[in-house]
Amino acid sequence: TSHYFGDNFSRPFNIKFSSREGDLKYVYQTSWGTSTRMIGALIMAHGDNRGLALPPKVAPVQAIIIPIAAHKGGVNEKAEAIKQALENAGVRVEVDYRDQSTGWKFNEWEMKGVPVRIEVGPRDIENGVVTVARRDDFSKTQIKIEDLATEIPALLDVIQKYMLEKARKFRDAHIVVCEDMDGLTAAVNSGNFVKAMWCGDRACEDKVKELTGASTRVMPFDQTPVGTKCVCCGKNLLEGEGKVIYFAKAY
Ligand SMILES: [Zn+2]
What we know:
Rossmann fold; elongated; Translation Initiation Factor IF3; 3 domains; single chain; binds zinc ion; 5-stranded mixed beta sheet; 4-stranded mixed beta sheet
């Protein structure tokens, strides 16, 4: 989140600087920071109908171990040993020992967005393996217990990259270049970002908002023109005139 405060805060707090002319003036301030909006964006960018899906780097719990048929001897002990091995490898990991059905636990940790689920059951233990399920694509694989301390951190890296790539592709597929208001309106109503030329006139910006609900979101550093006319008023733009700008609905 960023804001331009002007001298709204420097006046009450009396924050001044000595100007070139040698007198004291109030400073002009901006704010820049990570705010709750970032969390909203994360939920919307990665979540799905089953709930949250957290990128491994920011997930409070990166791997959840679910003991299967925990009443059988050795299962909980093995789950605990795997937890220790993963913790030693730097993974944020927990074991779900609660007295709930396996299906209930699977659903709950999926909803909470934990990137990796590790199922530890008696038959798998006999074979020296566990079943590992990914939250991002729901794929399942078997991994040797002795390899978990190297395989799980590697898998978390793969998931991190895959989720970023998937989100980027989705974003890029929803940016539509528009040259007139019909195109802009249709694109906005279908939930897209619109990339367009804008003459720079406030009246055009206001009109787009009034007609479509979309506002200017950002003016990119890359100002390679995407058209020759203002998307709103149709004014011809000579070289160097107008701005490339993104329009979208704000939520
Ligand atoms: Zn215009």
